[in-house]
Specification:
Layout (H helix, E strand, L loop, with lengths): L1 E2 L3 H9 L7 E2 L5 H10 L2 E6 L2 E8 L2 E8 L14 E7 L4 H13 L1 E12 L12 E5 L5 H11 L10 H10 L2 E6 L5 E9 L3 E9 L8 H6 L9 E7 L3 H10 L2 E12 L1
Parallel strand pairs: 5-6, 11-12
Antiparallel strand pairs: 1-3, 2-5, 3-4, 4-5, 6-13, 7-12, 7-13, 8-9, 9-10, 10-11
Length: 263
């Protein structure tokens, strides 16, 4: 395994994978690669007919792969606590078949996700909550981080790094539900926004405040600009979350994913 220190070092490794029939689970953007390089967290492992990219996190790794039809993964030496997610559509049969290959390599299936899409909010969605919702402000990151870590598995929830969290707060992408008049943080919503999508990344309501309409009040902050669609990934066994998003106007689309871990 070699550490990637420059984009110039990475580019020929990826270009070598651009062959007919290559499959990849989660190609990153150049900006994402650059961010990982600057942090010193990007590593590569070559193999016959493929390439593995590993992003180091606190106590675990995230893995992306490029696999050619004749790729041989038997020579791989992966670090423990490596997390792999494979998103697929019905037509992505080769990518779906790769799940068997990774399972034979030693990965264990944790759970599956369903993507849901929002084109237009439900006119019938109504919320009654005794909390007020406002954008998070600089300095509130520790409260948000604490709620994230109490309610999500850091390995599988795509939680932000400290600098990403600060950037999200500055950009107005995180909203807090605050009790009135006490000012206690009861939950939060974190969004990812691009020109084409507004995606719910995490939404949390602390256990003592559940059942009071707070999740709905937070979701009301999800607004779509012209040409934007809303997305959210939901664990397929999370019935309550699926129902909440359906009531808001989300519908299941063709994307699903499986989440694996190598321990």
């Amino acid at each position: 395994m070699e550490q990637i220190k420059t984009l110039e070092q990475l580019s020929p490794l990826i270009l070598a994978q651009f062959k007919r029939g290559v499959i990849a689970n989660a190609p990153l953007s150049p900006a994402s690669f650059q961010r990982e390089i600057q942090r010193g967290t990007l590593f590569a492992q070559r193999m016959d007919g493929g390439l593995i990219l590993l992003r180091r996190r606190d106590g675990f790794w995230r893995m992306s792969f490029y696999l050619q039809p004749d790729g041989d993964v038997t020579s791989l030496e992966l670090p423990k606590q490596t997390v792999l997610e494979i998103p697929t559509r019905p037509r992505d049969q080769a990518l779906k078949r790769s799940e068997t290959l990774w399972e034979e390599t030693g990965f264990r299936l944790l759970f599956s996700r369903q993507r849901m899409e929002l084109a237009r909010r439900s006119d019938e969605f109504a919320v009654r909550s005794d909390c007020c919702v406002r954008p998070a402000i600089c300095g509130e990151e520790p409260k948000i981080l604490r709620l994230m870590e109490e309610n999500y598995d850091r390995r599988t929830a795509c939680l932000p790094t400290d600098d990403e969290l600060s950037e999200d707060v500055a950009a107005g992408h995180i909203f807090l539900a605050v009790t009135c008049p006490e000012g206690q943080v009861a939950g939060f919503l974190r969004l990812l926004r691009t020109k084409r999508i507004a995606e719910v990344r995490q939404i949390v309501v602390s256990e003592p405040f559940r059942g009071r309409g707070i999740a709905g009040a937070l979701l009301n902050q999800l607004t779509l600009a012209e040409g934007q669609k809303g997305h959210v990934w939901v664990a397929q066994n999370n019935v309550a979350a699926l129902r909440l998003y359906e009531s808001f106007g989300f519908a299941k689309d063709e994307w699903t994913s499986t989440v694996w871990i190598y321990q």
